[in-house]
Amino acid sequence: MTAENETLEEALRRLPHGPEFRFLDRLVSLTPGQEGVGEYTVRGDEPFLRGHFPDEPLFPGVLLVEAAAQLAGVVAQCDPTIAPLADLKLTALRGVKILGTARPGETICLCAEITGRMERLIQATVRAHVLDVTVLTAELTLSGN
After folding, report:
1. For the segment 12-62, what is each residue's pLDDT rounded down to a tens digit?
2. Residue 25 DSSP class
3. Contact call for residues 61 and 98 (beta carbons, < 8 A)
4. Strand order of the sheet with strand 133-143?
5. DSSP at 23
6. What is the pLDDT of residues 85-122, one digit of tens each?
7. CA-CA distance, 77 to 79, in Å (whole number)?
8. Could you say which of 14, 52, 120, 129 is catalytic?
9. Is the confidence at residue 1, as pLDDT, over 50?
10. What whole-number distance in Å separates Cα of residue 2 and Cα of residue 144?
11. What is the CATH number of the domain that holds 81?
């Protein structure tokens, strides 16, 4: 494993979510505290897909937002100049546009850019793509202690 891969893996381990609610499989790139790109592949065996929808499973739009928030959190918490915030959570959404979704076997490419910080608040612009089609754009606020 290269030093860069070790850094990416270590950053991914910062997610506080359990495996059942982790929507970030891997980091593709990371500029700590600034921006990152990550991926989540919809496996098809996720329990929520049985009901969303039984005959045509679709990754829920609200989970696209969650996946993007998880990536934004990883990017923000890796800032080498600012100590990580405890209990970081998604606290506000603005301009959310869910333009599509993903199906089992498809990979969601997530992008997050930290656009501002003020004490315990972190602003981020996020987007998601599936097969080069934009499926999500949003501005998020994360907050912690």
Report:
1. 777 888 888 999 999 999 999 999 999 999 999 999 999 998 899 999 999
2. -
3. yes
4. 26-31, 35-41, 107-118, 121-130, 133-143, 89-98
5. -
6. 999 999 999 999 999 999 999 999 999 999 999 999 99
7. 6
8. 52
9. no
10. 32
11. 3.10.129.10
Find tokens 């929808």 and name the residue. 53
In the annotation, is 17 catalytic? no
Domain that holds residue 50: 3-143
State how far the Cα of 120 lies from the Cα of 142, in Å rounded to an integer.
8
> CA of 31: how far to CAs of 41, 74, 75, 97, in Å?
22, 10, 7, 25
Identify the residue with better confidence: 85 or 8: 85
Total domains in the fold of the chain? 1
- Burial annotation 121-140 (CB, 10 A radius, 16+ → b, else e): ebbbbbbbbbeeeebbbbeb
For 108, the token pair is 């969601």
